[in-house]
């Protein structure tokens, strides 16, 4: 392992070299360990992993910082030949921002809401380059703002962060990070909070800046499609270890580690309907990692060696490194599964839910303008739109939380009030809603048994034993064991919580399930499990209204699509037809800007098959 | 599925007892409470009998001496805590129950009842506690139950404010909306969904109210508006014997110390539980 720098030709001019980095929690368990990698000037390295893999821990360790409760206990972070971890605090403060800078995940949280943009930019220069006179500072700021694609006039500098859009805020943070011309820039999921169109533009800017200024970048992300567009090399993390490090093309065309392959197979893609393969099981917590390879319990090809000894990161093929006893060798192994799955053809049946001219307004601001569509029994309709399109307002109105909405909705021919209190019990039971954020949708003070049980006893006149039996059955349908009944939501992971929320909806025996971005808070491998479950429910006859901004997910689950923009429907039709040949300009932009694993390797978007 | 990964995030008693503030507060409170509640049965003498000299010095059968008219101080200390303790508990308890009910309704209804309840709470809040109690007691007499009732009225606005604020936040949380969509009755949402999430802050507030109640009630007796002599009461003892502080300090110091310990103990307990809860919810 220590021989790594001399072996890899790239590291000869490496500006960042991480050696044997180890970060521990208070109880002595490691969040990350044995982290070795290097980044050359102008190179973009993607650091990829699911939640809990340690990617953010590594990102902050590159600035010699550890979050509360964690401590950097070993290794070194060499930047331009200086070990950041060995610097005294005062020296370190000078290095941060100047030699290594950081772009955080949520731009709205990172900018001070009470200071003007110009003040925040000037502040950075005053601290790091006190020698600059005011005019020189202003020049530098103007130039940097132009670099990141922002206006540089005084009016803009006098604005407050809340007066900017999310994309502009993120550009301001990019400006702050690039202004001092750092050697290395660490980007921690800088686009996850943004819409796809904005994301695509920001990614372009980042890419151009790194290339033109020769800045080395570490791009942390859970989104492999984004990394594919941006990175030269990719490092895949699992349970705090590097499991694979490879050039972009090697990783995406021929992943060597079963986990990398699994991740690729679990991602829904906007370009092609594929069958998703979830990775079974969950990533272990730092305290509960198994002996041997941490991935072994979830691995399809584990042997006894895997459960006994942990594999070291070793070379495999051209420049690729993998930590696996049985690395995959077949070229194209990862993409072999990406065979198109035909869209099921369905007969025309009468609509179950008919939405006719819904308007909604929050005070003077109207968010929905006469939206109409219908949902058939057993179909999955995707309601697609970016933030602010009104899609959540619409979904909530259909679910009975429509205080702000007006309009006519018919369910099986009868009028459906938009306020749940005015619906009768049968309607409330048959139309169920699953919330976006599983962390807020379950009462933290009730056990799963009570959360699900309360719903059963509310709608069905059954005794305790029958209620319990149905609760166990509902958990079984979402692949949770009966023991879950005794647990509190705080004891469960995000994916498990979302499945409990779905179980609470299912136990009511609904005919319509409204899902509001149900997978956006989940990791891709867990997302695949949830999507698979929804597909199965749909085949059993459930009608699903799937609200999302993620076109990859839409391609994987939807039969039909309704595209919403600023409260109006701009396009509607069969899912594959709309995604392959979008008629509306806005839809076309959305499809084009959605990151795709498949399209990146194949030339421009093209119709993949005839209309269904 | 390997999902039964049990990581309990709820405040357990065991976890609470590892906090030094909780331990110290709980120990102090329990000792003073036991002393006050069991004391009346352990008095060596009749606490209302005149047995010794005025401000008589401590001696073998009166370890803390005699008070301003010759009562045995040990017996009066033992007998004089019960009234303070039950009145403080009742005051804090009534304020907690009534205030929580009003706060829940105000925070959840948001339309008609909210402004009415909050307006009344603000009016009461603007009125100094002690003065309110003094006013009513001086008009209507110094019955213990009346004092408890009026003191609890003085505490209710604080509880209403706390509960209403938390309820407003919780009412827009998705799990409450989920219950609304399922069509649960309003009282059931208040009691079954929202109230359980208030228990920790309410527990903290109860502790704080207990120490306030101890302060107000002993202050009332000290001012002569509380328990009437010749009955024994810690606050009253301070009043009765303050003239003889230099001759016979025990008749004042011991009740003062016990009142202070009770207030301190409940305060520490509330503070400790609060910090613990904050730390657990942060994670």
From TrEMBL, chain A:
Primary site of residence: membrane
Cited InterPro entries: AAA+_ATPase, ABC_Ni/Peptide_Import, ABC_transporter-like_ATP-bd, ABC_transporter-like_CS, Oligopep_ABC_C, P-loop_NTPase
Alphabetical list of PROSITE patterns matching this protein: ABC_TRANSPORTER_1, ABC_TRANSPORTER_2
Lineage top rank: taxon: Bacteria
Gene3D superfamilies given in the database record: P-loop containing nucleotide triphosphate hydrolases
Coiled coil: none
GO annotations of cellular component type: plasma membrane
This protein's record includes keyword ATP-binding: yes
Gene Ontology process terms (BP): peptide transport; transmembrane transport
Protein name listed in UniProt: Peptide/nickel transport system ATP-binding protein
TrEMBL record, chain B:
Subcellular localization(s) per the UniProt record: Cell membrane
SUPFAM superfamilies named in the record: MetI-like
Transmembrane regions: 20-42, 84-105, 117-139, 145-163, 202-227, 247-270
Coiled coil: none
GO biological-process terms attached to the record: transmembrane transport
Gene Ontology cellular component annotations, sorted alphabetically: plasma membrane
Pfam family, one: BPD_transp_1
InterPro entries to which the protein is assigned, alphabetical: BP-dependent_transpt_permease, MetI-like, MetI-like_sf
Keywords of the record: Cell membrane, Membrane, Transmembrane, Transmembrane helix, Transport
Domain ABC transmembrane type-1: 85-270
Membrane topology, from the record: Multi-pass membrane protein
Matches recorded under PANTHER family: OLIGOPEPTIDE TRANSPORT SYSTEM PERMEASE PROTEIN APPC, PEPTIDE ABC TRANSPORTER PERMEASE PROTEIN
Family in the record: Belongs to the binding-protein-dependent transport system permease family.
Name this protein carries in UniProt: Peptide/nickel transport system permease protein
Native species: Panacagrimonas perspica
